[in-house]
Write a structure and sequence with these properties.
By secondary structure, the protein is an alpha/beta fold. It is built from eleven helices and 16 strands. Helix 3 (91-98) runs parallel beside helix 4.
Protein backbone atom coordinates (compact mmCIF):
# COMPACT_ATOMS: atom_id res chain seq x y z
CA UNK A 1 0.00 0.00 0.00
CA UNK A 2 1.42 3.39 -0.97
CA UNK A 3 0.72 6.84 0.49
CA UNK A 4 0.84 10.50 -0.64
CA UNK A 5 4.32 10.66 0.92
CA UNK A 6 5.36 7.72 -1.28
CA UNK A 7 4.04 9.56 -4.33
CA UNK A 8 6.00 12.70 -3.44
CA UNK A 9 9.25 10.76 -3.06
CA UNK A 10 8.66 8.83 -6.27
CA UNK A 11 8.10 12.12 -8.08
CA UNK A 12 11.55 13.17 -6.81
CA UNK A 13 13.02 9.93 -8.13
CA UNK A 14 11.40 10.50 -11.54
CA UNK A 15 12.84 14.03 -11.66
CA UNK A 16 16.28 12.53 -11.04
CA UNK A 17 15.73 9.99 -13.81
CA UNK A 18 14.83 12.86 -16.14
CA UNK A 19 18.27 14.34 -15.44
CA UNK A 20 19.79 11.20 -16.98
CA UNK A 21 17.86 11.66 -20.24
CA UNK A 22 20.96 12.20 -22.42
CA UNK A 23 23.35 10.05 -20.41
CA UNK A 24 22.50 6.40 -19.82
CA UNK A 25 21.98 4.91 -23.31
CA UNK A 26 21.67 1.97 -23.89
CA UNK A 27 20.68 1.55 -20.24
CA UNK A 28 17.36 2.89 -18.91
CA UNK A 29 17.06 6.28 -17.19
CA UNK A 30 16.48 5.53 -13.52
CA UNK A 31 16.27 7.68 -10.38
CA UNK A 32 16.43 6.64 -6.73
CA UNK A 33 15.59 8.41 -3.46
CA UNK A 34 16.31 6.86 -0.05
CA UNK A 35 14.37 8.10 2.99
CA UNK A 36 14.28 7.41 6.69
CA UNK A 37 11.24 5.94 8.42
CA UNK A 38 10.21 9.54 9.17
CA UNK A 39 10.34 10.48 5.48
CA UNK A 40 13.61 12.46 5.61
CA UNK A 41 15.67 12.14 2.42
CA UNK A 42 18.98 10.45 3.23
CA UNK A 43 20.43 10.09 -0.26
CA UNK A 44 19.50 10.30 -3.93
CA UNK A 45 20.95 9.75 -7.37
CA UNK A 46 20.39 8.65 -10.95
CA UNK A 47 21.96 6.10 -13.25
CA UNK A 48 25.27 7.15 -14.77
CA UNK A 49 26.71 6.39 -18.21
CA UNK A 50 26.80 2.75 -19.34
CA UNK A 51 29.26 0.74 -17.28
CA UNK A 52 29.07 3.13 -14.34
CA UNK A 53 26.93 3.13 -11.20
CA UNK A 54 23.17 2.62 -11.29
CA UNK A 55 20.72 4.90 -9.49
CA UNK A 56 20.46 2.78 -6.33
CA UNK A 57 24.23 2.71 -5.85
CA UNK A 58 24.46 6.46 -6.47
CA UNK A 59 21.80 7.07 -3.81
CA UNK A 60 23.57 4.78 -1.32
CA UNK A 61 26.86 6.57 -1.95
CA UNK A 62 25.15 9.93 -1.50
CA UNK A 63 23.72 8.87 1.86
CA UNK A 64 27.11 7.57 2.98
CA UNK A 65 28.84 10.79 1.89
CA UNK A 66 26.36 12.74 4.02
CA UNK A 67 27.02 10.52 7.03
CA UNK A 68 23.58 8.89 7.07
CA UNK A 69 22.85 5.29 7.98
CA UNK A 70 20.25 3.69 5.69
CA UNK A 71 19.49 0.81 8.05
CA UNK A 72 15.72 0.33 7.99
CA UNK A 73 15.26 2.98 5.28
CA UNK A 74 12.96 3.01 2.23
CA UNK A 75 14.30 3.22 -1.34
CA UNK A 76 12.10 4.74 -4.05
CA UNK A 77 13.33 3.66 -7.48
CA UNK A 78 11.74 4.26 -10.88
CA UNK A 79 12.57 0.78 -12.22
CA UNK A 80 12.85 -2.61 -10.54
CA UNK A 81 16.38 -2.99 -9.08
CA UNK A 82 18.48 -5.20 -11.32
CA UNK A 83 19.33 -8.73 -10.24
CA UNK A 84 22.04 -9.72 -12.73
CA UNK A 85 25.77 -9.18 -13.00
CA UNK A 86 26.51 -7.00 -16.01
CA UNK A 87 29.05 -4.21 -16.18
CA UNK A 88 27.92 -3.45 -12.61
CA UNK A 89 26.75 -5.69 -9.78
CA UNK A 90 23.11 -6.46 -8.86
CA UNK A 91 21.42 -3.43 -7.31
CA UNK A 92 18.97 -5.58 -5.34
CA UNK A 93 21.92 -7.13 -3.48
CA UNK A 94 23.42 -3.70 -2.77
CA UNK A 95 20.13 -2.55 -1.22
CA UNK A 96 19.87 -5.68 0.96
CA UNK A 97 23.46 -5.39 2.14
CA UNK A 98 22.92 -1.73 3.03
CA UNK A 99 19.99 -2.65 5.30
CA UNK A 100 17.14 -1.18 3.23
CA UNK A 101 13.86 -2.37 4.74
CA UNK A 102 11.40 -1.33 2.01
CA UNK A 103 11.63 -0.76 -1.75
CA UNK A 104 9.00 1.10 -3.76
CA UNK A 105 9.53 0.53 -7.49
CA UNK A 106 7.53 2.18 -10.26
CA UNK A 107 7.57 -0.64 -12.76
CA UNK A 108 8.98 -4.11 -13.38
CA UNK A 109 12.13 -4.21 -15.50
CA UNK A 110 11.29 -5.51 -19.02
CA UNK A 111 14.82 -6.94 -19.40
CA UNK A 112 14.40 -10.75 -19.46
CA UNK A 113 17.54 -10.98 -17.29
CA UNK A 114 15.62 -9.17 -14.53
CA UNK A 115 11.83 -9.23 -15.16
CA UNK A 116 10.69 -9.76 -11.59
CA UNK A 117 13.82 -11.48 -10.31
CA UNK A 118 15.01 -8.32 -8.57
CA UNK A 119 11.74 -8.06 -6.67
CA UNK A 120 11.84 -11.78 -5.84
CA UNK A 121 15.36 -11.55 -4.41
CA UNK A 122 14.48 -8.51 -2.33
CA UNK A 123 11.42 -10.23 -0.87
CA UNK A 124 13.39 -13.40 -0.23
CA UNK A 125 15.77 -11.28 1.85
CA UNK A 126 12.87 -9.94 3.91
CA UNK A 127 12.54 -6.57 2.17
CA UNK A 128 9.01 -5.21 1.71
CA UNK A 129 8.49 -4.40 -1.98
CA UNK A 130 5.69 -2.39 -3.60
CA UNK A 131 5.55 -2.13 -7.40
CA UNK A 132 3.38 0.08 -9.61
CA UNK A 133 3.59 3.61 -8.21
CA UNK A 134 3.66 6.14 -11.10
CA UNK A 135 4.35 3.29 -13.51
CA UNK A 136 3.13 5.14 -16.62
CA UNK A 137 5.54 8.03 -16.06
CA UNK A 138 8.47 5.67 -15.49
CA UNK A 139 7.63 3.65 -18.59
CA UNK A 140 7.25 6.80 -20.69
CA UNK A 141 10.71 7.97 -19.67
CA UNK A 142 12.16 4.69 -20.96
CA UNK A 143 9.77 4.01 -23.81
CA UNK A 144 12.57 2.92 -26.14
CA UNK A 145 14.15 0.59 -23.60
CA UNK A 146 10.79 -1.13 -23.06
CA UNK A 147 10.24 -1.46 -26.83
CA UNK A 148 13.71 -2.93 -27.38
CA UNK A 149 13.45 -5.38 -24.51
CA UNK A 150 9.92 -6.54 -25.32
CA UNK A 151 9.96 -6.49 -29.14
CA UNK A 152 13.60 -6.48 -30.23
CA UNK A 153 13.12 -3.14 -32.03
CA UNK A 154 13.88 0.48 -31.12
CA UNK A 155 11.16 3.08 -30.57
CA UNK A 156 11.06 4.96 -33.89
CA UNK A 157 10.33 8.68 -33.66
CA UNK A 158 9.99 10.56 -36.96
CA UNK A 159 10.78 14.27 -36.73
CA UNK A 160 9.24 16.60 -39.33
CA UNK A 161 9.23 20.38 -39.68
CA UNK A 162 6.29 21.53 -41.79
CA UNK A 163 4.02 24.41 -42.68
CA UNK A 164 0.41 24.49 -41.52
CA UNK A 165 -0.60 22.93 -44.84
CA UNK A 166 1.82 20.04 -44.37
CA UNK A 167 4.68 21.04 -46.66
CA UNK A 168 8.29 20.41 -45.60
CA UNK A 169 9.91 22.37 -48.44
CA UNK A 170 9.16 24.34 -51.57
CA UNK A 171 9.00 22.44 -54.83
CA UNK A 172 12.60 23.55 -55.52
CA UNK A 173 13.73 21.93 -52.25
CA UNK A 174 14.20 25.09 -50.18
CA UNK A 175 13.33 24.36 -46.54
CA UNK A 176 15.54 26.64 -44.44
CA UNK A 177 13.83 27.73 -42.40
CA UNK A 178 10.17 26.79 -42.18
CA UNK A 179 10.19 26.69 -38.37
CA UNK A 180 11.80 29.15 -35.98
CA UNK A 181 14.87 29.08 -33.71
CA UNK A 182 13.03 27.75 -30.65
CA UNK A 183 11.66 24.77 -32.58
CA UNK A 184 15.06 23.96 -34.04
CA UNK A 185 16.67 24.07 -30.61
CA UNK A 186 13.92 21.85 -29.22
CA UNK A 187 14.53 19.44 -32.08
CA UNK A 188 18.17 19.15 -31.04
CA UNK A 189 17.03 18.20 -27.53
CA UNK A 190 15.03 15.33 -29.02
CA UNK A 191 18.06 14.32 -31.09
CA UNK A 192 20.17 14.32 -27.94
CA UNK A 193 17.88 11.92 -26.07
CA UNK A 194 17.95 9.39 -28.93
CA UNK A 195 20.50 6.59 -29.17
CA UNK A 196 20.81 7.13 -32.92
CA UNK A 197 19.68 9.51 -35.66
CA UNK A 198 18.53 8.03 -38.99
CA UNK A 199 18.58 9.68 -42.39
CA UNK A 200 18.62 8.62 -46.03
CA UNK A 201 20.96 9.13 -48.94
CA UNK A 202 18.53 11.61 -50.52
CA UNK A 203 18.89 13.97 -47.58
CA UNK A 204 22.67 13.49 -47.53
CA UNK A 205 23.04 14.37 -51.22
CA UNK A 206 20.57 17.26 -51.22
CA UNK A 207 21.21 18.96 -47.87
CA UNK A 208 24.68 17.67 -46.81
CA UNK A 209 23.68 17.85 -43.11
CA UNK A 210 25.78 17.08 -40.03
CA UNK A 211 22.81 15.74 -38.05
CA UNK A 212 24.63 16.04 -34.73
CA UNK A 213 23.53 17.75 -31.51
CA UNK A 214 24.71 21.36 -31.37
CA UNK A 215 21.95 23.52 -29.91
CA UNK A 216 21.82 21.86 -26.47
CA UNK A 217 24.51 20.57 -24.11
CA UNK A 218 24.92 16.80 -24.20
CA UNK A 219 27.49 14.39 -22.73
CA UNK A 220 27.43 12.25 -25.88
CA UNK A 221 26.53 12.40 -29.55
CA UNK A 222 23.97 9.85 -30.78
CA UNK A 223 25.12 7.46 -33.47
CA UNK A 224 24.25 8.34 -37.08
CA UNK A 225 22.52 5.76 -39.27
CA UNK A 226 22.39 6.27 -43.05
CA UNK A 227 20.18 4.27 -45.40
CA UNK A 228 22.35 4.28 -48.55
CA UNK A 229 21.38 1.41 -50.84
CA UNK A 230 24.22 1.90 -53.35
CA UNK A 231 26.78 3.50 -51.01
CA UNK A 232 26.64 6.85 -52.76
CA UNK A 233 27.58 9.03 -49.78
CA UNK A 234 30.43 11.42 -50.76
CA UNK A 235 33.55 10.93 -48.68
CA UNK A 236 33.68 14.69 -48.01
CA UNK A 237 30.10 14.83 -46.68
CA UNK A 238 29.53 16.93 -43.56
CA UNK A 239 28.23 13.92 -41.64
CA UNK A 240 31.82 12.68 -41.26
CA UNK A 241 32.73 15.74 -39.18
CA UNK A 242 31.32 15.02 -35.70
CA UNK A 243 32.89 12.25 -33.59
CA UNK A 244 30.28 9.50 -33.16
CA UNK A 245 29.56 5.98 -34.44
CA UNK A 246 28.54 5.96 -38.13
CA UNK A 247 26.44 3.06 -39.37
CA UNK A 248 25.60 2.65 -43.06
CA UNK A 249 23.02 0.20 -44.37
CA UNK A 250 23.22 -0.79 -48.02
CA UNK A 251 21.41 -3.14 -50.38
CA UNK A 252 24.35 -3.61 -52.73
CA UNK A 253 27.81 -4.44 -51.45
CA UNK A 254 30.43 -2.54 -53.44
CA UNK A 255 33.76 -3.60 -51.89
CA UNK A 256 35.64 -0.49 -53.01
CA UNK A 257 33.00 1.92 -51.72
CA UNK A 258 32.62 -0.05 -48.50
CA UNK A 259 36.36 0.09 -47.80
CA UNK A 260 36.40 3.84 -48.51
CA UNK A 261 33.55 4.44 -46.03
CA UNK A 262 35.16 2.17 -43.45
CA UNK A 263 38.38 4.17 -43.82
CA UNK A 264 36.28 7.17 -42.71
CA UNK A 265 35.30 5.31 -39.56
CA UNK A 266 31.95 4.00 -40.78
CA UNK A 267 30.54 0.53 -40.30
CA UNK A 268 28.75 -0.83 -43.38
CA UNK A 269 26.07 -3.53 -43.24
CA UNK A 270 24.28 -4.99 -46.28
CA UNK A 271 20.65 -5.93 -45.72
CA UNK A 272 18.68 -6.21 -48.95
CA UNK A 273 14.98 -6.97 -49.31
CA UNK A 274 13.34 -8.73 -52.26
CA UNK A 275 13.01 -5.41 -54.12
CA UNK A 276 16.72 -4.76 -53.93
CA UNK A 277 16.43 -2.00 -51.33
CA UNK A 278 17.56 -1.89 -47.72
CA UNK A 279 15.41 -4.18 -45.58
CA UNK A 280 14.22 -1.58 -43.10
CA UNK A 281 12.67 -4.04 -40.63
CA UNK A 282 15.87 -6.08 -40.46
CA UNK A 283 17.82 -2.85 -40.07
CA UNK A 284 15.75 -1.96 -36.99
CA UNK A 285 16.33 -5.41 -35.49
CA UNK A 286 20.05 -4.96 -36.10
CA UNK A 287 20.01 -1.54 -34.45
CA UNK A 288 18.27 -3.04 -31.42
CA UNK A 289 21.11 -5.58 -31.17
CA UNK A 290 23.48 -2.60 -31.11
CA UNK A 291 21.65 -1.19 -28.11
CA UNK A 292 19.51 1.44 -29.82
CA UNK A 293 16.47 2.23 -27.66
CA UNK A 294 15.19 5.38 -29.39
CA UNK A 295 15.76 6.01 -33.09
CA UNK A 296 15.24 9.60 -34.22
CA UNK A 297 14.39 9.86 -37.93
CA UNK A 298 15.23 13.02 -39.89
CA UNK A 299 14.77 12.06 -43.51
CA UNK A 300 12.98 13.07 -46.67
CA UNK A 301 9.49 12.19 -47.83
CA UNK A 302 10.62 9.00 -49.64
CA UNK A 303 12.28 7.29 -46.69
CA UNK A 304 9.58 8.63 -44.35
CA UNK A 305 6.96 7.04 -46.59
CA UNK A 306 8.80 3.72 -46.73
CA UNK A 307 9.06 3.53 -42.96
CA UNK A 308 5.41 4.48 -42.47
CA UNK A 309 4.11 2.07 -45.11
CA UNK A 310 6.10 -0.75 -43.50
CA UNK A 311 4.51 0.00 -40.12
CA UNK A 312 7.88 0.70 -38.53
CA UNK A 313 7.17 4.14 -37.03
CA UNK A 314 5.89 4.57 -33.47
CA UNK A 315 5.35 8.31 -33.30
CA UNK A 316 5.63 11.53 -35.26
CA UNK A 317 7.35 14.58 -33.79
CA UNK A 318 6.00 17.40 -35.94
CA UNK A 319 6.96 21.06 -35.63
CA UNK A 320 4.24 22.98 -37.41
CA UNK A 321 4.89 26.57 -38.42
CA UNK A 322 2.15 29.19 -38.95
CA UNK A 323 2.81 29.33 -42.69
CA UNK A 324 0.87 28.38 -45.79
CA UNK A 325 3.19 27.30 -48.58
CA UNK A 326 0.74 25.86 -51.08
CA UNK A 327 2.38 23.47 -53.48
CA UNK A 328 5.56 21.93 -52.09
CA UNK A 329 7.05 18.73 -50.74
CA UNK A 330 4.91 16.78 -48.31
CA UNK A 331 5.80 15.00 -45.09
CA UNK A 332 5.90 11.52 -46.57
CA UNK A 333 5.35 9.64 -49.78
CA UNK A 334 2.51 7.37 -48.69
CA UNK A 335 0.88 7.18 -52.09
CA UNK A 336 -2.77 7.81 -53.04
CA UNK A 337 -5.57 6.12 -51.11
CA UNK A 338 -8.84 4.92 -52.57
CA UNK A 339 -10.83 5.58 -49.39
CA UNK A 340 -10.37 7.15 -45.98
CA UNK A 341 -10.48 3.77 -44.23
CA UNK A 342 -6.97 3.18 -45.56
CA UNK A 343 -5.59 6.30 -43.86
CA UNK A 344 -2.93 5.84 -41.19
CA UNK A 345 -4.63 6.66 -37.88
CA UNK A 346 -2.78 8.49 -35.13
CA UNK A 347 -3.53 9.72 -31.62
CA UNK A 348 -2.32 13.09 -30.41
CA UNK A 349 -0.12 12.48 -27.37
CA UNK A 350 1.06 16.06 -26.74
CA UNK A 351 0.46 19.45 -28.33
CA UNK A 352 2.89 22.10 -27.10
CA UNK A 353 3.63 25.67 -28.29
CA UNK A 354 7.35 26.09 -29.01
CA UNK A 355 7.95 29.76 -29.72
CA UNK A 356 5.63 30.75 -32.59
CA UNK A 357 5.37 27.12 -33.74
CA UNK A 358 3.48 24.07 -32.45
CA UNK A 359 5.10 20.79 -31.46
CA UNK A 360 2.78 17.86 -32.14
CA UNK A 361 3.61 14.44 -30.74
CA UNK A 362 1.31 11.93 -32.43
CA UNK A 363 1.50 8.18 -31.97
CA UNK A 364 0.52 5.56 -34.50
CA UNK A 365 -2.73 3.93 -33.41
CA UNK A 366 -2.05 0.21 -33.04
Amino acid sequence: MTSPTDTAHMAQALALAQQALYLTSPNPRVGCVITSAEGVVLGSGHTQAAGQAHAEVMALRDAQAKGHSVQGATAYVTLEPCSHQGRTGPCCDALVQAGIQRVVASVQDPNPQVAGQGVARLRAAGVQVDVGLMADAARELNIGFFKRMQHGMPWVRMKIAASLDGQTALTNGQSQWITHDAARQDGHAWRARACAVLTGIGTVLEDDPQLDVRAVATPRQPSLVVVDSRLETPLNANLFGPQRPLWFYAAQDDAEKRRALEAQGARVTCLADTAGKVDLAQMLHDLALRGVNELHVEAGHKLNGSLLRAGLVDELLVYMAPLLIGQGRGMSNLGPLSNLQEALALDFHEVTPIGPDLRLLARIRR
